Structures are given as C-alpha cells and as structure tokens.
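ugh ok so i messed up the first submission bc i forgot one of the chains. this is the corrected input, ALL of the components this time, i swear. 1531 residues overall. if the numbers dont match what u have on ur side tell me asap before i send this to the collaborators (the ones from the other lab, u know who)
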Amino acid sequence: MSADLSTTYLGLKLQNPLVVAACPLTLQIEWLERLEQAGAGAAVIASLFEEQIEHEEAELLAACEYGSEFYAEHSHWYPDPGEYRSGTATYLDHITAAKKAVSMPIIASLNGTSTGGWVKYAKMMQDAGADALELNVYFIAADVDAPAADVEKRYTDLVAAVKQSISIPLAVKVGPYFSSPGNMCLKLAEAGADGLVVFNRFLQPDIDIKSLETSPHLELSAPQEMLLPLRWVAILRGRVSASLAVTGGVHDGAGLAKVLLAGADVAQVASTIYLNGFEHISRMIRDLTAWMLEKEYDSVDQLRGSMSQQNCPQPAAFERGNYMKALTNFTGKPV
Amino acid sequence: MAERRFVTIDGNEATANIAHLCNEVAAIYPITPSSGLGEMPDAWAAAGRKNIFGSVPHVVELQSEAGAAGAVHGALQAGAITTTFTASQGLLLMIPNMFKIAGELTPTVFHVTARTVATHALSIFGDHGDVLACRSTGWAMLASGSIQESQDIALIAQSATLKCRVPFVHFYDGFRISHEVNKVEQLTEDDCRAMIDMDLVSAHRQRAMTPERPVLRGTAQNPDHFFQAREACNPFYAKVPGLVQETMDEFAKLTGREYHLFDYVGAPDADRVIVLMTSGCGVVEETVEKMVAEGERVGLVKVRLYRPFDGKAFIEALPKTVKTIAALDRTKEPGCAAEPLHQDVLTAVTEYCPAGSVPKVVGGRYGLSSKEFTPAMVKPIFDELAKPEPRNHFTVGIIDDVTGTSLPFDESYSTEADDVTRAVFFGLGSDGTVGAVRNTCKIVGENTPKYSQGYFVYDSRKAGSLTVSHLRISPRPIKGSYLVHSANFVACHQSHFPDRLDVLAMAEPGATFLLNSPFGPDEVWDSLPAETQQQIIDKKLKFWVVDAYHVAKEAQMGVRINTVMQTCFFKLSGILPEEEAIAQIKGAIKATYGKRGETVLNRNYAAVDGALGSLKEVRVPGKVTSSKRRVASVPDDAPEFVKEVLGEIIANRGDYIPVSKFPVDGTFPTGTTKYEKRSIAQDIPIWDKDVCIQCGQCSLACPHATIRMKVFDPAHLSGAPESFETADYKTKEYPGWKYRLQVYPDDCTGCGLCVDVCPAKNKQVAGRKAINMEWKLDHLERERQNLAFFETLPYPDRHTVKADTIKGSQLLQPLFEFNGACAGCGETPYVKLITQFVGDRMMIANATGCSSIYGGNLPCTPFTTNAEGYGPTWSNSLFEDAGEFGFGMRLGVDQQIEYATILLQKLASKLGDNLVAQLINNRQETDEEIAKQRAAVAELKKKLQSLDNPDAKALLGSAEYLIRRSIWSFGGDGWAYDIGFGGLDHIFASGRDLNILVLDSEVYSNTGGQASKATPRGAVAKFAAAGKPSRKKDLGMIAMSYGCVYVGQISMGANPMHALRTIRAAEAYRGTSLIIALSHCIGWGIDMATAMQQQKEAVQCGYWPLYHYDPREPKPFSLDSKPPQGAFKDFALKQARFAMLARSKPEQSERLLKLGQEDIDVRWQLYSHLAAMPPGGGSGGGNGVEAAKSEKEVNA
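and heres the new structure output, hopefully the right one now
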C-alpha cells in the first residue's frame, strides 16, 4: 500500500510536498542532484541579492580603477579582463544548468531593493529557465517615520510590478512582522502572488562582546519555530487563493505532516538537511508516508488543510484562546 | 580588404598593434615608459588575438632586460619572428645581446621608448641617451616623431629588417610620443601582410638553427681572423639605406604616406636649417611653417634612418641654398667633441658637400628628460643661425648661468592658431580627470572630422597626486608635441587647488574657467584667493562653477567626478552641439563600462544628466574681494636652497631654475619633506585622550609618520596652547610624565590606517575609538598650533626607552617622514620603524622601484635627521644591484674600520690606551654603547686635531667609521625575486653584515602591476592575465639554505610585535640578514584603510606564515604564527587581484585557488617539520655564525 504524496504548488506538479528552501545547498549542481536523489519535490535556488550584485559590480570596477591614471608609471593596474562575469550571470547560468541536471522543478529566488531591479532580474531568471520565482522580500522599516501603510504598499507595488513582467508563477516569501499578517497575505495575493511562503527568517545583527562590533547572525532553525507559520497557514488556508508554503522549523516527517494538516501545499526545509544530511529527506518522506498509511490518508490532497482553522475541531486554538489555554495549563513552578 | 579607420590612441598602442601583428614571440621586461608596449600584446594574446601568420604570439616576461634579450636571441635562432620593448637602463642591459644579434645578421626589431639614462639622477622621462648608447652595436635605427609615425615606422622597420638582415631599433620619445594620445589612421592586418614578405620570413627560418641542417654559431675567434670575419658583414650594411627607402616607397604606395631617410620641410630656398629626430620635428615644423609664411628662409630636416647614417642622402635632402645648419641632439655626452647627431652632420657635410660650399654646422642640446621643447625655443635657434658667427654647442629650454650655453627665448612666441581648442585640466589622480580627458580625445578623434591631442602630466608623489591634462582639438592634424601654454579653456577639478597653485597662469585672455566647487555661483567668488580673483578680472575670464562631487554623490559615483566634468567641458567648449555631445559621451560610457555591468553604466549616465543641471555661470565682480592669499610653496623660514630650488619645483616653476642653483653631482640635502605642507587629507585622526590606551599601534602603522607620540616632563608644558591636551603617561619608566598623541594635519594623507588599527574603544559610544577620522577643516588651525608646540618637545633619551616594545619604539623619532607614497602604503611603516631604531647610523642602498620613488623623488626628501643632525644616508644605484650596492658599502665601511683601527693602534701612545681600547672594544650593541662610542669618537677627533702627524690627519678622516653603521639594502619583490635575485643570492653566501629588507607587495608596484615571482598563484597581474599559474618563490627558504643568513618573514598588520623584534634581531645579527615584509599595496585591489586587516587574514589562513631563522640558535628555525585557520579562498576573494579571475575565468580561478590552498598546506607542513627538527638537524643551524665567519674570511 502506498499514499499519493504529490502536491501542486504554484501550479507546478510536485512528486511530494518537500521543497528544499533557498540555501547554499542549492548552489552546486552536484548537491542539487543529491537532493533530488534523496527525494526532494522541488528546490528553491539560494537568493540572488540585488544590492549585492550592484555593490559587487561597483566595488570590482572601483578596485580595478583604484590607483589608475594617477602616476606616470602606471595608467592602470590590471590587464583588461574582457567581459568579466557578474554574480547575476553566474546565477543565471546556474539556473540553466540546474534545469538540465535535475527533473524536479527549480524555483529561482530573488532578494531585491528597487522596483526596477526586481523586474529586471525576475525576467532574467525566467529567461534562464526557472519554473517559478520566489521573491524574498527583505525590507527593514528602519525609518521610524515610515507609516505601516507605506511599507505595505511598497510590498504590493513590487509584487504587482514583478507579476506583470513575468509569465512563470510567482511566490512571495514574507516576514511575520505585520500588524495584520493575514490581511497582508491577502493583499499580496491580490497584487499577483501565486504563492505565499511563510515566514522569512531575517538575518539579524548580533553584537560581538569581544570586539564590540556588530556581526550578521543566522542560526539554523529549531523545530519549535514551526509553530508560528503553522498558525498562520491554518488561518490562511481557505481564505486565500494562493499556494501556501511553510518554511522554518520543519525538521521531520511529523513536522511535514503538521504543516500539511494546517493547510500548506508544501514545506520548505533546509536546516534539517544541514543537521542530518541529504538522506534525511528520504527519511522525512518515509515517515510522512508511514504516518499517512497509519492514519489511512490516501493522498496529500486529502489531508491538506484538514486541520486548518476553518476545518479543525477548535478554531479558537489558532487565535487568542490558545494563549489562554496555555496559561491556564501551565504547571511549572518558579525556581 | 578591411577598411582602415581613424583611431585616437597613444604611441605605445599604435606601435604595439604592429608589433603584435608582425611577430611571433615577444620576450619583455617592464620598464617605464615602454611597459605598455608589452602589456597590450600580452592582453591581446590572452584574448586569443592572432598575428598575420595566423598564430597567437607568445608574450613572456623575463626576470630582467638582460634575460629578455637572451630569450629574444634564442627565439630568433630558433626561427621565430621576435621582438622586445624597452627603454633606458633596460636597453643598456640588452646591449651585449644586441652586439651578438647584429653580428649574426639576424632580423628583428626592438621598439624603444627612448628614455633618459640615469646619471646624477634617475628620470623616467624621454631623451635619446639610451638609444644613442647603442650606436656601436651595429643595429639600424629608425626614428619616429608622432603617433602616426610610430605606427608607420614600426611597420617599415619590421619589413625592412627582413630585407636587410640587419636588426633594427625603432625608437620614439618616451612619454611625449609613447603616452601622447593623437588621431591616427590605423593600419590593418592586410597592410601588415602586404609589407611583410613571407619569402623573407621563410628565409629567416631557413637560417635558424635546426638539427636537420646543423650549423654552429657563436664561435670563439683569434687575432689572425676575427678582424676579417667582422668586416664580412659590410655589404649588408651598405644596402640598408637603399632597402629602407625601398620599403618606405612600398609603404607610400600602400598608404599614401611618404617617408624618406631624411625628410625636408620648409622654404625651398632656405638658408637656415635645423636637423633633428623624433617628436621635436613636429615642433620645429610648426615653427618653420609660421616663419616661412612670414617670409623667412628656414627649413627642417627630419632624420628617419639614423643608423646607418647615409651622409649622401642627407646632403641631397638639404636645399642647395643652405648656409647654416643646427643639429639638435636630445642627449648630453659630457666631454665629447660634438653630440652624436651633430657629429654625423659634420661628417656628412665634410664628406659630401663640394669644397667651398660646405654649410656651417653648429650643434645644440634640447629636451633632456622630456624638458619642454616649444616653437618659442625653436625661433631663437633660427635667429642664432642668421648671425655671422652662430653659437655652437648651445642649449635651449634652460637657463645656463654657469657655462652660458643657453639661448634665451621669448615664451610668448606662439604658433598656435585661433581655431584650435586648447584646454588644460587640473585634477587629482583619484578623481578620474586623466581618464576623462583621454576619453574626450577619443570621442572627438573617432567620431568627428576634427583632430585631438592629449598629454598628461603627473605628480611625483603618489598620495594626493596632482594631474594636469593638456588637450588640443583642431580642424587640422596636430603636429607639435608640446604642452598647452596658452589655454582658452581651464578646468580646475578640485576647489582647493587655487589656494596653492596658480591654475590660471596658462589661461589666455577671454578664456573659460570651469571650477568644481561645493560653493554655488553666488558664493564661489569669495572662496577664491585674491590672486585668482585678480587673474579672472584681468584676463576677463568667463567663469563657470559646478558642484561635481554633489552630482557624483547623487549618482552613486563616489569621488569619481570624471563624467561630470567631461560633460561640462563639452557643454562649455561647444565642440559639438549639446545633444550630440551628450549622446557621444553616453556612447563612450557604454564602450568603456558596457562590460562592467548595468549598475556602473546607469550611474555614469546619471552623472552626465546631473552635470548639466548643476553647471552655473558666475557673475564676476569688478574687483578683488578676497583677503585670502595663495599659500607659499614652502614656508618663509625654510633654508635658502629649499626656497630657491625645491620650493620652485613644488610651485611648478622648476623650468625657470637656473643651472647654478643645482648641486653639481646630484647630492641633495635630506629632511626636506617637512617644508612641503600639501594638506591633502579631507579627514584627519583626532585624538581622544580619555579613550587612548597609549599602545602606539597608530603611530607604528602610519605610513607617513604623521601621527606621533611623545612623553615628557610636565615642566615642558609651559607655554602650551590651551587646546594642547595631554594624558598621564601610563608606565613606570617615566613617573609623573605626560603623554600626547599628535597629528600632523598638513602632512597626513587621510588614509585612516591609524584609526583602523586602534584597539581602544569609547565606553559610551562603541563606534568611536581613541582616534577618529574627522573633517580636517574643523581642527586644522588648532592642530597646527598644537603641532608647533609638540615639535618643541624633546624626544626622550633613547637609553631610557624600551625600544623592544611597540609603545617604546614609537617614542623614538622616525627619521623617515612625510614621504610621497600612496595613502595607506604597506611598505613605508617598515622603513619608518627601522629608522626609529637605527636611523641615526644608517646607510641605505635602495633598489629602483616604489621605495626609491617615495624615498628619493624630488622635490623633497623624506629621510631626515635627529636633533644632533644624524640620520640615514641614502642612495639608489640601479634596479638590479641594490644587494651588491649595499654589499659594496659594507666592504667600504669595513675597510675604513680596519684602517682606522690600525691607525688607532699606531697612535695609541698619543691618544691614550684607555680611549683607544674603548673605541676598539666597544661592541656597540645598545643605544647606550653607541652613544658612548659617539662621545669617544668626538674625544678622539678633538685629540687628533691637536696632533701634527700624518697618521692623525688620516685617522681624522676615518674616525667616524668607528661608530657602528647599520647598512641596509631596500627594495621590492621585483628586485629581490627577479632582477636582483642573482646578486642577492651572492650576498646571502657572503656572510657580510648587511641587512636586506624586501618590501614584498607581490607585484611590480611602481611600474603598474606586472607579475613578479613573488606574485601568488591565482592572482591576476599584467603578464599573468589568466592568473599567475605557478606558485610564489620561497625566497626565505633559499636564503636559509646557506645556513648563515638570518631570515625573518614578518607582517606588521598581523603581528606588529613579531615584526618589531624580528627587525631588531636581524639588524643586531653580524652577518647577512634578510627580512621579507608583507606589504599590502593598492595593486591588491583592496580598501587601503583596512589593509592591515588583510595582512592579519593572510597570516591567519597560512598564506603568509610568520617565522624567523636565527643561525645563532641551536634550533634556528622558529615558526611564529599559529596553524592556518580558515580557507585561502575566503582571504583571496576579498581582493580584486584574485576576485577578477573568479569573475572572468571562474573555472581557472577555482583550480588555481585550490592549488593555492595546497601550496599553503604543503608549506605549513614543511615549516612545521623544520621547526620540529632537533638541534643541528641539517638545516644549517647551530653553526650559522661560524659559517658566517668563514664566508667572510673567504670573501675578505
């Protein structure tokens, strides 16, 4: 006996709901092949950062020109490299190569700063052969004078602009820090998002107490982090037409089952592969299958969203009621 | 057949194109100004560009010009059509092979950018001293005098050499032609094919060495037959002029451009004629045209084929009417009967003019080291020739008030036409001005029917360097190769220049003056000094202002204002209609930056659009309103020599200094950089005494000695300015003393290295340190006052300073200050530190390169003296021989010590045994012992002066040798790893007490980034365009193999304490010592402000292991850095030299970086084994001192 694990995400037919999230594991063809062999349903290629590309272009030119034309004995420092390849070209080549190397859908990912940049790079990725595009919207509203409505409009305008410029499906990876995340997701879907990836785990600055400097910090996700997207997928399922993906904290077959029950079409995983190796993908799928068989689910389609807020036995659990319950059930004692 | 097109390029590019197409092998060695000639074919070859034979030429860099000539000789013997490019000392190093190549009648062309040969001083600029030193080699010599000619004559030479079988030197003036940009009709590959006879190429190959038809060349011959055999080549030389003319005629048929062995221009009935060669011809031609138009009977003979000198053809080229001839030589041969061309002309008229009609011939010198040669200088020569007894052996262009050779000239004499745009642009090296003007030249030359000429004058300092770009745009070809002296457009790209420079001296009445200034049209007038305001009023200049930095910032272009200023020039000059000009500029931007990404393109486009909006005309008031005066080049209290010579050079008036003001032998005073206050920094480090931990790191790292610390008794504070803050000094040595960290605000370059290395952080504001870069103008006046007081404070007594600590070392006076190196230089902190330790008794033999330029390029000299007047004495011999030069100094000093010792012993009874014993037995290993020796020598001299004895007199002359000297050879990796390695290797074996400092920047820095054998694997450099494929030479290991050399590999950025101790130990070692100092460089493509961090990472990842090898120790080798942590790749890809390859050739980069990691791993293993070896374990250790002694004995 077996269960049908196939799912549809962004209109793409996937053999199972495990999608490798945007991470460096997807930046080498050899590793992509291993991910597919292990059973991944699709892969999101690690993000192309618009500002990084621009910064790199400008920096490389500056470095090449630095010290030029200022002294009689040297008009320039380096031999003309001819057409050197920017990070963009390398990324696009990688998408093309990935499409050739594996049969699972390849989703390109873009992290941009300007509307023009988003549109330009989105088209380039489509042309390179990506099956879909995931926008990794990373905007920190550090300007405390910026009203929330302006920030939200920035998101929706951006999604609309990109959607207009491409014909492949578009997913948007958003963060949880909106006053009304559910409403924001609806707006994004209205603006053209074919899928929503909840939630983006932002790179946060840390403070090095030895050097007294800030340093970027990103830790692998922990299973308990899954609960936040789980809640919001459960709330969104049935209320938004876009595909739903959960990312952050899905580490095992049980986690996979949970997000599907809450209403996700797919789960994006990365940390657990780093922690447990490529073969862990097979294990997660095996465990999901075993659980489905045990619970007598025929297919992912059947179980998807069966525990969403709309469908679950205690809808209030996804709201404030759950909080109350947690408080009243708390039995710990102060140390 | 491909169409010929007009291009606007420099002489080197014009020539290199032909050389690439017509040769199969080029073996080169970089030397200014010929380096570009080799670099371009190297880059073309790397891109797969083929020659006319259908193959990609092999372009290889050798270890010296001598090596390059040997390789050329070999390639020719193997049948390849082969060339090389060189100049000056480089050409001289080729002379032995040139004799051989000519003696073997081997066709080849050496393309030479004629450059001054170093005599009393080095000069990178142009004259014919080098080429004329090769007259006896048997090479034919063809001269070209313009960019067009450099291309055409290059091809004629390549063709003729095959016909003649005689090798050719094709030469033109270094810089004036090699670097001038002008419009030329570019020859095509088909043109080259038409001119190169493949049958002659085959014949060359047939004569090549081959085991199929074995021959023997290079025999040794004896008195009975050598002479005759040498004469056997005569018929070939006899045919050269005819064959060259035949080739020129073929060329004329092909292209329409006619050349002759000697070309005459001027009045058909001229009675006065000037004869010369190369770029001066255009200047004389312009003058001749004007004078003939005015009815004067003057003319010019351009010498094309200088060797063999065809006297008959020369006479035939002259008008029959000629009465007087001036032969002008761009060289000086002291003691000669007449300079070379003068002699040749004299011989020709004597041999070929009919008796009774021999014209009078006089000779003159002009243009040495690219000295300006203008129509104003030509006119008085013709005037002189009109006199009944014209002066002979004259000079022109200088004021010779010693031997009276110079002809006076009227500077206002001009041949410039009114319809020519003549513009000068004052810029900073870093702001892109030169690139913008070069680009303007190209836009006009290649997209309009007009002609353009660009020439660029650079500063001799690298930090904050000034550039002056000279541009002409004309409806006619521009012949005269000389600077713009009367400009109808002056652009000043930096608002502070008028405060120090007379930027309007060249502006003609009614000219346009464009100033980049943060002040708007209503405020800018008041920002100018009174002198500039007066000039604007007097000359009725049209004054425009643009805030280019603001526009550039808005366009995210940083400090690159080139695009903004170029746009303004086009708008104001009206050379093209505005819309067309903008389109052309944008087109040029696309051509230049199209490959560099859309971001770069868009930012440049934004700068163009922003420029037009920001450009405003200034309403010029009728009177001077400013109370500000232009700053004098040196202060009033400077010594006379500094004011009269160095100050005038600084003020751009060096051309007017007369001969009498100069030293006769190239000897200059030290310590003169302190008089030149360039004030180039925008931000300077400002001290926060409450945060400072008094560690000395900032002072140690400063490349220019512009942040210093002093400790002093508070009693000295009397009279201090109110702002002169001090802190309590936090050590036991000087209880109760005060501490002050002082910035030199007008000398600081603003590099920021000091702030980057500062370890102290503000407790309340973690972003601030004990020193912080702040806007200079907010602190300038106050810090000037503070500095003036700081300078009055004494340095502490050397004996009391703990010099073996960083802090202590920085309490010693640096005797190397305010040098002209790049801001953030990685070399100069080492040099400065050494002078702090031993500068007062130091002799330096400096290899040519960056260190000789920042160490000895006029106007000012950075090595200086302490309060007693002691300090480093410095000299540069050559690039290749700094090891031997220093070794010779050691020999000379040792000899004098022995001589003085003998005399001391002879005079012991008169001088007193105690004094003699003290002088002979003092080991002089500490500062205290050195001081005692100085005192004893002073006493000795006093006693000797009272003795009437020949030995006493002799000893008086040698007494100072008894003070222990610290003798050093300084140089870069190009010297130590390549051209000077053979000599250095010999010094290693000598055991003599010489300290060798290798400032390893891992690339030829001074000549602009050519690969050396120190260049790491995977780094891009010129002649390693695809990444250096081989690993870096382990120079330290080679030195260690002798067992008697102290070797230290150090990095100031990674471990300053190790660097400091290693330097001290190496200096103290009484044998040969080698210090290899990691020296970051702008050539690495890094942010120089954080360069010390790059050094740290270099050591951390094992790329640059720290070690020392002390032959005195039982276990001589000590590995002083920790095992590698982190990947080489992560370190490397932060630097453009590696990152470029990762972008252009990712697979190659990946492969080389992997090999680079293996290099690190293998070397670390090797060093670890060496460090772990038991005492005396075969590394030469343990008996090093004995080895040193025995080697010394052998060599003594």
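quick check: Chain A touches chain B at residues 53-54, 57-58, 60-86, 90, 120, 212-213 (CB under 8 Å). that seems consistent at least. Confidence is low (pLDDT under 50) at residues 329-335 of chain A.
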